[in-house]
C-alpha cells in the first residue's frame, strides 16, 4: 500500500480528524472508532511502518512506556481497574489496518473478558524443538 493511501498516516498527520488524547513528535494517540470498551485507545507512530517487524527500533522502544502512561490515565481518569496492551501483526493475527498501531484497552470491574485464549497442550520434546526453531531466527 502507498503511504499516501494509508488512513492512519492521514490521522497521525492530522489530515483526518480524530479524538486525540496525546501527541508528540513521534506519536499521535487517538480513541478507536470501534471501541472494545470505553476509552479504547490506539497509539499511532507518525512514521509509516506496516507492522512491528518493520518498525524503527528507537520508535518501537518508546511505545510500551507510552502505553503504560495511557493505561495509567485510564485508571485514574476513567476508573478502569486494568488495561490490555494489544498489537496485531498480519491478517491472521487480526490486523486490519496495515500501519503499526498499539491498542490500549481499558478494563472495568465486572466487564467482559476480551483478550484471552484457550490454553492448549504441548510435550517437552515439541517445546524444545519449537524453541530451537525460533531461536535460529533471532
Ligand atoms: P487492528 O485490527 O488492525 O489491530 O485494529 C484496527 C483498529 O482501528 C480497529 O480497532 C478499528 O476500530 C480502528 N479503526 C479503523 N479505522 C479507524 C478510523 O478511521 N479512526 C479510528 N479512530 N479508528 C479506526
Ligand atoms: Zn501509514
What does this structure look like?
The chain has helices spanning about 5-10, 55-80, 125-135, and strands at about 20-25, 25-30, 40-45, 80-85, 100-105. With about 140 residues, it is an alpha+beta fold. It has a single domain, classed as 2-Layer Sandwich (HIT family, subunit A). A five-stranded antiparallel beta sheet has the order 1-2-3-5-4. Strand 1 and strand 2 (about 25-30) form a beta hairpin. The structure holds guanosine-5'-monophosphate and zinc ion. The site of guanosine-5'-monophosphate has 12 residues, from loops.
Quick description:
With 138 residues, the protein is an alpha+beta fold.
Largest beta sheet: strand ordering: 1-2-3-5-4
CATH domain topology: HIT family, subunit A
User: What is the CATH-assigned architecture?
Assistant: 2-Layer Sandwich
Largest sheet: 5 strands, antiparallel
The helix/strand class is: alpha+beta
| Count of distinct structural domains | 1
Instruction: State the CATH superfamily name.
Output: HIT-like
